[in-house]
């Protein structure tokens, strides 16, 4: 009778394979969880990012602001477009109270250019700084994963909130106003009620 070479996978049984897959998935979840921005940690100190106003911007430029809201944005994401009015409203409502809003684009793709950013800023009449970071250092520093992904920095530029702007892409259906609730609490001297929420939108693709 003809003999066949033993398979290199002879020691794997279905149950062993399942355990292996489970361990891989568990490790992946652990990596994602550990990659979240730590509440209370110093924000990544970005420097010299070009804005749609043809100026270079650094985090230290906002030293006179009491709180800074940072939102990672991009041009291709329809979810971001649905938030433009809400982003503009931050300055209208909270600007006089020392709050600044900053949009940062570190996404990749043919639409993520400064020309397209400028066009979008003009079309949406952005009243906030919209900055481009092709190096993606800022996104990695904040552990941003999607657009929009929002962060609030306190007077010491520590992260006190990370997550979604609110709980629904459709403004008419919003029930929880995460960012504005956080700002109201901070301005009143109270702790942020929900420091971390689950962000949603288009995934940010990072270069290797």
Describe this structure in words.
By secondary structure, the chain is an alpha+beta fold. The protein has one domain: 3-Layer(aba) Sandwich (Glutaredoxin), CATH 3.40.30.10. The protein has six helices and nine strands; from the N terminus they run αβββααβαβαβββαβ. The termini are far apart.
Walk me through the topology.
Blueprint lengths: L13 H21 L14 E3 L4 E2 L9 E6 L5 H4 L2 H11 L4 E7 L8 H10 L5 E4 L4 H6 L3 E2 L1 E5 L5 E5 L14 H10 L14 E2 L5
Parallel strand pairs: 3-4, 4-5
Antiparallel strand pairs: 1-2, 1-5, 3-7, 6-9, 7-8
Record keyword descriptors for this entry:
208 residues; Glutaredoxin; seven-stranded mixed beta sheet; two-stranded antiparallel sheet; 6 helices; 17% strand; globular
In short:
This protein is α+β, with helices and mostly antiparallel strands and 208 residues long. It has helices at residues 14-34, 78-81, 84-94, 114-123, 137-142, 178-187, and strands at residues 49-51, 56-57, 67-72, 99-105, 129-132, 146-147, 149-153, 159-163, 202-203.
Instruction: Give the second-level CATH assignment, the architecture.
Output: 3-Layer(aba) Sandwich
Structural class comes to: alpha+beta
Helix content: 25-40%
DSSP E strands, number: 9
Determine and state the CATH class: Alpha Beta
The Cα radius of gyration reads 21 Å
* CATH topology descriptor: Glutaredoxin
**Name of the CATH superfamily:** Glutaredoxin
Number of helices: 6
């Amino acid at each position: 009778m003809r003999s066949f070479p033993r398979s290199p996978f002879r020691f794997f049984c279905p149950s062993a394979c399942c355990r292996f897959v489970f361990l891989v998935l568990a490790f992946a979840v652990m990596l994602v969880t550990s990659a979240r921005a730590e509440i209370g940690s110093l924000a990544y100190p970005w420097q010299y990012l070009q804005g749609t106003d043809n100026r270079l911007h650094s985090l230290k430029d906002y030293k006179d602001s009491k709180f800074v809201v940072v939102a990672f944005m991009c041009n291709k994401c329809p979810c971001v477009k649905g938030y433009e009015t809400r982003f503009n409203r931050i300055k209208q409502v909270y600007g006089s109270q020392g709050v600044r809003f900053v949009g940062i684009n570190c996404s990749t793709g043919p639409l993520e250019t400064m020309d397209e950013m400028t066009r979008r800023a003009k079309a949406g009449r952005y009243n906030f700084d919209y900055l481009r970071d092709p190096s993606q250092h800022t996104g990695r520093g904040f552990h941003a994963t999607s657009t929009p992904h929002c962060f609030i920095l306190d007077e010491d530029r520590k992260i006190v909130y990370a997550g979604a702007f609110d709980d629904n892409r459709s403004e008419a259906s919003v029930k929880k106003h995460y960012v504005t609730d956080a700002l109201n609490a901070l301005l009143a001297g109270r702790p942020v009620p929900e420091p971390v929420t689950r962000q949603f939108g288009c995934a940010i693709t990072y270069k290797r």
